[in-house]
Amino acid sequence: MIASKSPPIDVVKIAIVGLGYVGLPLSIQFARSGVTVLGLDVDAEKVELLNKGRSYIKHIDAATIAEMTKANLFGPSTDFSRIREVEAVIICVPTPLNKNREPDISYVINTGRMIAPHLAKGTLVVLESTTYPGTTDEDLRAVLEEGSRMKAGVDFHLAFSPEREDPANEQSKVKLIPKVVGGYTRACLERAMALYGKAIDTPVAVSSCRVAEATKLLENIFRSVNIALVNELKLVYGAMGTDIWEVIEAAKTKPFGFMPFYPGPGLGGHCIQARTTPPCRNTLCIA
Predict the structure, then answer these.
(1) Each residue's pLDDT tens digit, 222-267
(2) Domains in the chain, please, with CATH?
């Protein structure tokens, strides 16, 4: 990791593309921090609901949305040409697996194409969508450079910061979750660190976009493997007449070298990532 103190940055307005489980909470956090947020989404129905101060995500309070929109700190829209109004763009769109179980980055690429013609010189673009190393500095960079006719790291800034959202955890707060940030260049990194520093308590700098992308994959793989393991053990221990929940609670007493994972219906989520799923004591859970 890179130890650096981010310089101050005068960000007045940012755009967050994709108002789902990642983008909407992030929009609210930036708005709470005094940054004006243009929330962009291709789903006109979502945008209409948000402009009415209503929420379509269970754990996000409609009153908070109404408060931010009334204060003109959060403005949902479908008009991507308004990108020219902002100093930074954060992309939070899905990256699902396709029918061949391969990463589908078409949402990322299409978003890049939509915002590129409207980028102003000096704008920061940050990708948060979970993806494989190289997506930001190769695939996204290529479409941004082609569409804007500018160079990343020279005319505009480019970075990757993996989302860390835990929607099933009522104690999880966007502001308090450390935020890994990797930049295409050192200047890109500093710009992105300063931006997130306005809304997140602990931005964590790494040496490149690829390190940040790989970090997210490691986090997800770690969780996926352990959920699969505990689901298998539930079946094995169940056949032996042993309660997996009691086993886990006993193992939790070890103060080192163990982290509890619980049986569940699967990983969940709308992209290449693992969402927290509530324990299911009364069902047979398999990964």
Answers:
(1) 998 999 999 999 999 999 999 999 999 999 999 999 999 999 876 6
(2) 13-216 (3.40.50.720)
Q: Which of 197, 159, 204 is nearest to 179 (CA)?
A: 204
φ/ψ bin of 70: left (φ > 0), alpha (ψ from -120 to 50), beta (otherwise): alpha
Tell me, letter by letter, the H, E, C secondary structure of 203-224.
Answer: EEEECCHHHHHHHHHHHHHHHH
Check 92, 188, 209, 271 and give the catalytic one.
Answer: 271
Give the Cα separation of 164 and 108 in Å (integer): 18
Can you give the pTM of this predicted structure? Answer: 0.88
Q: Sign of torsion, CA 28 19 137 132?
A: positive
> 164-217, pLDDT tens digit by residue?
987 666 666 899 999 999 999 999 999 999 999 999 999 999 999 999 999 999
Backbone region of residue 4 per phi and psi (left: phi > 0; alpha: psi in -120 to 50; beta: other values): beta
Per the annotation, the verdict on 188 as an active-site residue is no
Q: Tokens at residue 47, please? A: 């945008």
Strands (E) in the chain, as ranges, are: 13-17, 36-40, 74-77, 88-91, 124-127, 157-160, 179-183, 203-206
